[in-house]
Every structure is written in C-alpha cells, then in structure tokens.
Request: fold
Amino acid sequence: MTKHILISGASIAGPALAWWLHHHGFRATVVERAPSLREGGYKVDIRGVAVDVVRRMGLLETVHAAATDMRGAAFVNKRGKQLATLDADTFGFRHGDDTEILRGDLARILHDATRANTEYVFGDWITGLDQRPDGVEVTFAHGAPRRFDLVVGADGLHSGVRALAFGPEEDHLRRFDAYISISTVPNTQRLDRWELLHSAAPGKMVNVYSTARADDAKAAFWFTAPPLSYDRRDVEGQKALVADRFAGLGWEIPALLAAMREADDFYFDPVCQIVMEHLSAGRVTLLGDAGYCPSPASGQGTSLALAGAYVLAGELAASDGFATALSRYEASMRPFIEKNQALAKTALRGIIPQSRAFAWFNTRMIKLMPYLPGRNRVLEQMARPIREAANALVLKDYA
Ligand SMILES: Cc1cc2nc3c(=O)[nH]c(=O)nc-3n(C[C@H](O)[C@H](O)[C@H](O)COP(=O)(O)OP(=O)(O)OC[C@H]3O[C@@H](n4cnc5c(N)ncnc54)[C@H](O)[C@@H]3O)c2cc1C
Reply:
C-alpha cells in the first residue's frame, strides 16, 4: 500500500518535501497552522546544491523569473548620504546560478507545483502523536484523528512537532542574543531593486529594499539584546518592542517604524539556531528550520530546507524501512548542517556592528574595495566559506 506521510508546515521545507514524496510515489498531506499560505518575509538565497535540487524539480526557470533581481546596496549615514556601495551579487556572496528570491514567492511557487497531488489542510495543527509499531496516530486541533506512516515536522523554528516528539524548544536552542524584524512598508524612498543599510547605533542595524516587480519595500530591524521575554502571539506587543529599541534614532527610522506599525505581515524572531542530538524519534522526523535552523544570519535556511527535502524523500524511497531511511537522512545531512550553521556567528558580527569604529571600518573597506590591489582575492576569501558550505553535500541520484 502507498505510504502516507504527514508534513507539518507549508512554507519552504514542507511543500518541497511534498514535491519529492510525490515524485517517489508516496502520498503526502500537509497541515499548516496559518489559515492560508503565508506571504511575506525577507529575500532568501538559494545557493550551491539547493540550486541543483530546484533544477531537478524543473522549477529553476520559474524561480529565476521570480528572482529579486537586485542591482546593489548602499551603506548610508544618518543624513542619508551614501558612504559605500556594492553590486548585488558581491553583497550577497552569490555565485553562478545562486539566486535570491522573496520567501513568500518561493513558498507560492512550491505550493503551486504540489497542490494538484498533495492534500493541503490550512488552519489546523497537530496536537498529539501516538507512535504505534505500524504507524502514528495523530490528533489535530480541529480535524478528526488520522493515522499516518510517518510524520515530518517542517514547521519552522518554533516547531510544534519538535515540541511534541523531542521536548521544549529551549532544550534545542542556540542563542545569539540578537533579534530580527521584517515588514512590508511603502517604498517612499523610491528604491528600484536597490537596498539601503544604516548602522543606526552600536548593536542596531536597519535595512530597507525594494525588489523587482514590487510596488512596496521591505524594512528590516536587527538588534542585539539578551534573551527577551515576550508573547509570541502578541504581534502588537512585538511591534512596540522593536519601536522602543529604535526610538530616537535618525535617518528614515521614525518613518520606517511608523510603517512597520501598520504592516500586516510583520515578522519577528530571535536570531538563533536549532541544534538537535537526533533528527528522528521513531516515525517522527524533522526537516528544515524545525530540525536545523541555521538562523537568518547564515543566509542558508532556505537552501538547507530544500536540500533536506531532497535527501529525506530520496532516502525514504531508496531504503527498505523507515528506520534505515531516517538514519541515512541524518548521516547525509549532519556535516552539511554543521558547516552551514557555522557561518552564522561571523556573519552576524558584520550584519550588526557592535561599535561605531567597526561600522566605520566596515564601510570604509567596502568603499575602498574597488581600489585595493588584491580586490578579487579578498572578495574570493570572503565568499569561499559560504560557497564551500553551500556545496558541502553530494546529491545522490535516488532511483
Ligand atoms: C512568514 C515567514 C517569514 C519569514 N521571514 C524570514 C526572513 O525574513 N528571513 C529569514 O532568514 N527567514 C525567514 N523565515 C524563515 C525561512 O522561511 C526559513 O529559514 C527557511 O526558508 C526554511 O523554511 P522552513 O519551511 O523550514 O520553515 P519556515 O519558513 O519557518 O516555515 C514553517 C511553516 O510552518 C508553519 N507552522 C508553524 N507552526 C506550525 C504548527 N504547529 N503546525 C502547522 N504549521 C506550523 C508556519 O506557519 C510556516 O508556514 C520566515 C518564515 C515565515 C513563515
């Protein structure tokens, strides 16, 4: 009988896995807590082996057509004066076919590519997992209980499946004492595929950009802080928290904060990682941010999710039983996860300068870059760790 797999989460990892499960002859059901596909989010990168995964799905052209097509980025001071600029690919350390796309656009592409042969249930979530020798009895907040052969938690940083099968989030969290908030805002600066970055104060960074085909812009507020206590369901409270952190600062910050207050796709989360001793427990396994979030600072969350979906579905198809498949999935992914998670700490130091001197030095280096004698070598040295991590997985050809 066709194996029936339940996936929790319909963002990137979940629909990508549904695509590969269908490809290998499994039946997939995706349950998503949000009432419909979630739009919004930052621009995300698809790099290295993840590009190959998208190519193998036959979606690379569609993804390229939806790419942000950014021209570049400028660092500005509090009067809005451009201090240094960089072209988009250098700024994003992209290489070859690496692509940048809005998270919401990628989620839409993956959903469109899977909805004809995948059952999607929106507005519901798993409340209980009862593992039996021949399957998992699953209870839902709204729907009737159902039995599945395997359950995959692809439900992000705050995964409900992980909490049910592996215990509290806190036990698996690697904190960086930093936070990020992103909202869609009006494009009042008339940015045309262009990004502005402003180091507002030590430990506080703001960037705003508008991508191809967008009438609006995205504003991101990054800040460092010790662990904050706030209600994750209280969006207004989180908006107030961000506004409070950036109150009284210059440049366009007051207008961006006012626009953030009005945004209906406000996103706020700690910059942190998920580190699991094991990705699977019996017939329950984790995929993407739920199992190995590398943090937005690494720029690799989406690529890990896409590659993980390919490997998990492939190993399920190639192995005789779930236990073997899940242990092979973990063995393949573990070094790849570790290399990509290792990128975040250094990257974060560059994203949120902790002193005015560091911010000044950073901007100065970027400004002088075109005139440096060993420019290409320096850029190559900076890009190499990301390129190596993004390619640190060999994609097997699963039958
Ligand atoms: C709205 C949104 C905006 C984002 N913006 C950014 C960003 O700006 N920068 C960045 O680096 N990363 C962002 N991310 C995270 C980024 O998408 C991931 O790092 C990466 O793409 C891996 O995706 P994922 O599918 O593993 O996890 P996620 O993209 O986090 O998706 C998890 C999905 O599971 C759903 N979900 C959560 N809990 C449950 C539950 N209990 N039951 C069922 N479904 C559940 C969520 O609604 C979501 O659709 C965002 C995620 C979302 C959902």
Summary: Residues 322-341 form the longest helix (20 residues). The pocket of flavin-adenine dinucleotide is lined by residues 8-14, 31-34, 38, 40-42, 44, 103, 125, 154-158, 160, 182, 267, 288-290, 296, 301-302, 305 (CB under 6 Å). The longest strand covers residues 173-186. The mean pLDDT is 94.
